[in-house]
Amino acid sequence: MPRRLPTAEFLRRIGWALPALAALAFGVVRLPELTRSPLWFDELFSVGVAGLPLTDSLRRIVADHTNPPLFYLLLKGWMAIGGESDQWVRLLPCVLAMLLGAALVWLARETRAGGVAGTLAVALAAASPLLVDLANEVRAYSLLALLACLSLAAVLHDRRVRSRHTFALLTVVNVALVHTHYFGWLTVAAACIVVVSCWPRDDARRVLRSAAYTALAFVPWAGAVGAHMYANPAPLRNVAWIAPPDAAAPLWLLRDVTGRSGSAAADLGWLALVVGALVLLAVARWRRTTSTSNSVETGSLKLLAAAGVAVPLTVWIVSVFSGHSVWVQRYLIGAAAPLALLVAIAVTALPPRRWAAGAAVGFAWCAVALAALPTRAPTKFDWRRFVRRIDVTVGSPANLYAVEAFIAAPLQRYARAGMRVHMVATLDQIPRDDGWLVYRPESFASRPPADRLRAIGFTVVTALSAETAGQKVVAVRLRRAPVATANTTADPATRTLRERPLR
To answer: Of 154, 34, 177, which Cα lies nearest the Cα of 103?
Structure first.
């Protein structure tokens, strides 16, 4: 009998504690991120919807068309326990993100990946900037990643055990998955395609029957959303902003799932190693298909490949060649766990196996990626700092005006004492008093708002601007123009818009 490697033997001995250790490892990286940035509009939408009475909440979720209700309902119960503070509402997705570590350990065991590959997969996912950035987003992404991983593990577990309890577990997880995010259906579909194409008929029937029950349970929600879309114009307005992906988008997803170093050259080198390892793994498994096409190991790897690689590639192809793009990287977070595990299996299988060179490179890369996490650029606009900057400029103004909810919601959340936030439909609705207009330049692409403000009797005194992750926000201080000169040309010095970017 071959002697176990010391690392593999150690992992075998502490196997009972690995799920908890994986969750703890995820928490060490994610918990400090709870308040790294303020809530942005989508998160405030979640908090607002969860704070409504149940009936009104469900109506609002149906009308939004973008997400099923499960995460909102969980958040509603969570807020009933601890309130609506930034730290508390973000703790829910963070806890779900930590549980992904434990779920990934289960998935690695069901795929028979081995202790080293499973541990490397956990390390890669722990250091993933995509998973870390979305871990504290008060949206359904952490729950989507967790349930997608549990769904794949439950498929393999039911194949191995074949009991009523394992079938019920698979079905319940799938029902929860598709009621969390519509992209959850991609994980269910990937499993169905794999089991039909390469699993024994009896095993495939169980998975297909579970998927049928899942679809039946989804009918009431689909009917409610479909009826609302039919009765209202422009049902896809909330996803019209999605731009087509570039040619390298799948590679950037692979990079963001398995870690970034901060160096473009190092990142490209790691991507080349990973892609080469995946190709070698695919070739090696293809050569064995003649005698082991129905083996548990082969079926497991195909399931990981379908959920972690084929799903993103399919979404990319549809987005590039169809009339409407559906490529949003965070929507594909359900592919993160199977992709990380597949990469770990491929890297640890690289020759020379005897010295585990691939595993050593993989763990070294995880250390580099973890070290680079604190230096990554912010992904959300810092509304707290922006409001504070307005405050220290001239003291707390009485009125702040916004022409869109995207701006008004965070302003209301982080307004300082003495500030009153107003939502107006047009610039003409701003009362003729002193205050600030806060807006996004892209909302006034056809005509700068300063011109219209002067035309209706305001003097634009100063402006503050800040930009984060491609999102620019401008605050313009307004003063009433003297009545005698309101309709005449203002002094050029007064008309100058002096932008002072935040530092």
So the answer is: 154
Looking at the predicted structure, is the pLDDT value of residue 355 above 70? no
Neighbour-count burial of 361, counting CB atoms closer than 10 A to its CB (0-12 exposed, 13-18 middle, 19+ buried): middle
SS (H, E, C) 316-366: HHHHHHCCCCCCCHHHHHHHHHHHHHHHHHHHHCCCCHHHCHHHHHHHHHH
- The pTM assigned to this predicted structure is 0.89
C-alpha triplet 487, 488, 490: angle, nearest 5°? 120
pLDDT over 90 (residue 395): no
Preceding omega of 374 cis (within 30 degrees of 0): no
Rounded Cα gap, residues 361 and 108, in angstroms:
20
Q: Give the type of residue at 64.
A: D
Domain ranges of the chain: 6-234+243-375, 383-501
Alpha carbon 165 to its chain centroid, in Å, reads 31
Task: Give the lowest-confidence range in 190-194, 349-353, 359-363.
Answer: 349-353
Whether the CB-CB separation of 156 and 110 falls below 8 Å is answered with yes
Q: Which of 145, 189, 179 is nearest to 62 (CA)?
A: 179
pLDDT at 274 > cutoff 50: yes
- Residue 138's closest CA among 380, 453, 357? 380
